[in-house]
Model the fold of this input.
Amino acid sequence: MTDITTAGAFRLGARSVSRMGYGAMQLAGPGVFGPPKDHDAAIAVLREAVASGVNHIDTSDYYGPYVTNQLIREALHPYPDDLVIVTKVGAVRGADASWNPAMSPADLTSAVHDNLGRLGVEAMDVVNLRVMGRGHGPGEGSIEATFSVLADLQRQGLIRHLGNVTSAQVAEARRIAPVVCVQNMYNLAQRGDDALVDELAGLGIAYVPFFPLGGFSPLQSSVLSEVAAELGATPLQVALAWLLHRAPNTLLIPGTSSLGHLRENLAAAEIKLSADVLAKLDGIGAGNAH
Done:
């Protein structure tokens, strides 16, 4: 079995978690909507992830909707003492599978209570505020009103820690309540958060990238594939390994509904990248770094 502790650990709120975590989004049906295509396989993936040392699971009540939280509870409740479950709020799903903003105080409060109820916990470990923007990116602008709603729920004891803002919003959010993580799309090809990753590392705040292979051009994909072939690994494994090498505060949450793919993802924790390989990989996104 892969030893994911080789990837190290980083603080997420009050606890130290393995840098190789698991994202539950793909356990829902096609388009992250409806039940899983294989319920028993979904349960098996969750149980094997935790048995392999994963102690950071990312989810949301709007995955399905409700599906992933229900699966997590069925598979893992009562939860291991060291397991950190992170959810996000700020959206709801339409009957047509659409993703719709849900940012009013009532919406946010209801979302937190819904996550608590379906997961079967008295307090959420971490709640991320997801401000919907273009594509997979977060929305810009002030988050004072919405983040304050979550901070109030934190004071009530329903949330332990808060996260998920853009670079411009970090300072504003931290004036309202401590921020323990930021979660955005970031990978070898999409490097818009380069400066933010380093800023957060200096502050001791975790950065949680998603879509490790999202937004690659054919040329960028070919370079990654060449490197992967040289290392005897898959392109996704190399992309995950690069994220682990990128900074000490990156916490990965690759998702899958397949046991085989889960094992491949976790094995990326053991991949070592030489200086020459890192230089070649860094060149993939050089034009997209900010």
Observations:
- The chain has ten helices and eleven strands.
